[in-house]
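quick one, 81 residues, struct below
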Amino acid sequence: MPARYRIIIDRVACIGCEVAENHCPEIFMLSSGDGKCSIKPRYNVKTDDTVSIGIIPESLLHCAEEAVDACPVSAIMIEPT
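---
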């Protein structure tokens, strides 16, 4: 089974700066409702006011890691599933 990773966005900490979306538009988007980062529907498992959680394939890990490293408020985490 191919490796998969859980992406967790702390939407309370998120400042909506678009850094994640600019680094990895395959996974991240700004929510039209509140302007905060969310996981795109293709990978989304759960999104509410406080958190957005998604599951991505290993092929997108590098892209996601770039977004994690660039986030100015450390609002994004990656963990293996």
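Residues 21 and 63 are 10 Å apart (CA to CA).
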